[in-house]
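Module 6 notes. Inverse folding takes a fixed backbone as the condition and produces residue identities as the prediction. Think of it as a translation problem where the source language is geometry and the target language is the twenty amino acids. Below is one complete input and output pair. Work through it position by position during the lab.
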């Protein structure tokens, strides 16, 4: 088991330091932090090491703006970590729409069944709650 959490932590520290010199990056990080404060309670917690070992084994951290991305070479799955929000998402790079993120089991979140038995699509807020995962702190792991 690799220690992806250390790569994420050092990458986050680097991005936060860089944001002190880059106003655009600082604005992105501040915006993500504010969003996280609003929705953090809805996110299922994950051990980043276990999550990456499951969906992007053997990958290394790649910085991209306000994100840190883990992707195994040749795989369509990416673990996209948000530096400021302390969250991650599982992205399927073959899906070319806004709803390209997967649930905790690596499945596309499908429609929901209403009490009357009809199917309906999920609102964006519910979709986001299903596809965002709170990264556990080192002491919580």
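Target side of the pair, the amino acids:
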């Amino acid at each position: 088991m690799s220690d992806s959490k250390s790569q994420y932590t050092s990458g986050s520290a680097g991005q936060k330091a860089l944001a002190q010199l880059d106003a655009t990056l600082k604005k992105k990080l501040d915006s993500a932090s504010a969003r996280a404060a609003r929705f953090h309670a809805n996110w299922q917690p994950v051990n980043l090491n276990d999550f990456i070992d499951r969906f992007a084994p053997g990958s290394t951290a790649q910085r991209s703006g306000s994100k840190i991305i883990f992707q195994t070479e040749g795989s369509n799955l990416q673990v996209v970590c948000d530096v400021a929000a302390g969250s991650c998402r599982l992205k399927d790079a073959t899906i070319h729409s806004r709803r390209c993120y997967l649930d905790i089991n690596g499945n596309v979140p499908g429609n929901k069944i209403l009490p009357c038995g009809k199917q309906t699509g999920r609102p964006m807020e519910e979709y986001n709650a299903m596809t965002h995962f709170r990264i556990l702190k080192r002491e919580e792991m």
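Reference fact for the lab report: Strands lie at 44-46, 61-64, 67-70, 77-82, 87-92, 101-102, 112-113, 119-120, 133-135.
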